[in-house]
Amino acid sequence: MIASIENFISSSRSAETVGALKDIYLQAVEAEGYQNAVYAKTRNRSVVDIPWLKFPAGYAESYVSNRWDELDPVVHFVPSARRPFTWSEACGSQKISRAQRTFIENCRDMGVHSGVTIPLHGPGGEVHLISLSMRDERREAPNILPKLLGLTYQYRFRLSELECDEILPPNDLTSKEVECLRWCKEGKTNWEIGEILHISEKTVEFHVSNTIRKLGVSNRITAVVKGIQCRLISI
Questions:
Q1: Whole-angstrom Cα distance, residue 28 to residue 26?
Q2: How far is CA 201 from the centre of its chain?
Q3: Hey, what's the signal peptide range on this chain (predicted)?
């Protein structure tokens, strides 16, 4: 049983795959009493992807098939959240409709009770979240949120490292692409980068486009973020 954040950090660093890291994280949060967990990606108050989840049988299928994300107070609340929050806090911050109350009752009937959510804000308005919940009616332990936050941030940090290792082979970017990325981080335009590197604006555009494609992102801002995460450029 992983009993401390220090032990979790050590264990997570030893994980060599995304799947192994997930298992270590789930073991850690279950030790804190949270048997249910989901890692979801949201945009515009809708769930757009669920990389993994752990729920009682039938719950996930019901959530997806019934489009419960359209009713879920957590999904509605998470875009404005800047810190971890309890589900009761999310419900208390907005007017809950009758349909939403029915949704909450259905969750409890299926073994999804008291929960907490950690928002992970990204570029382009996308908000990732990790929600943890119990399978019976219990109150969260006092002061549990800081520990869950520590576990989750370490999980997300190590996940970024593993994803970089899997997606981007070493030295996949050329030296010129890395140079352009470094100047993108400084907020320089293609024309300004061309002047600095003594190449044409069109050539800079070519290098930046290649960098975006190789990093698997959608624009130069997210390319800079990914470049920092992958240790291709420094902060």
A1: 5
A2: 35
A3: none
What does the angle CA 233 – CA 79 – CA 31 come to, to the nearest 5 degrees? 80
Q: What is the pLDDT of residues 14-69, one digit of tens each?
A: 999 999 999 999 999 999 999 999 999 998 889 989 999 999 999 999 999 999 99
Dist CA 125 CA 218 (whole Å): 13
Sequence-distant (6+) residues with CB within 8 A of 100 are 71, 72, 73
Overall number of domains in the chain:
2
Phi, psi angle pair for 215, to nearest 5°? -85, -10
Residue 235 lies in a domain: no
In this structure, the answer to whether residues 42 and 128 fall within a common structural domain is yes
Instruction: Calculate what percentage of the chain has a pLDDT beyond 90.
Output: 60
Q: Which residues contact 208 (CB under 8 A, 6 or more apart)?
A: 177, 180, 181, 184, 190, 220, 223
Asked if residues 180 and 208 have their Cβ atoms less than 8 Å apart, the reply is yes
**What whole-number distance in Å separates Cα of residue 18 and Cα of residue 20?**
6
Whole-angstrom distance, CA of residue 142 vs CA of residue 87: 15
| φ/ψ bin of 13: left (φ > 0), alpha (ψ from -120 to 50), beta (otherwise) | alpha
pTM as predicted: 0.71
CATH number at residue 90: 3.30.450.80
Same domain membership, residue 74 and residue 29: yes
Mean pLDDT calculated for residue range 83-108: 93
pLDDT in tens, 102-161: 999 999 999 999 899 999 887 667 789 999 999 988 776 667 888 899 999 999 888 888
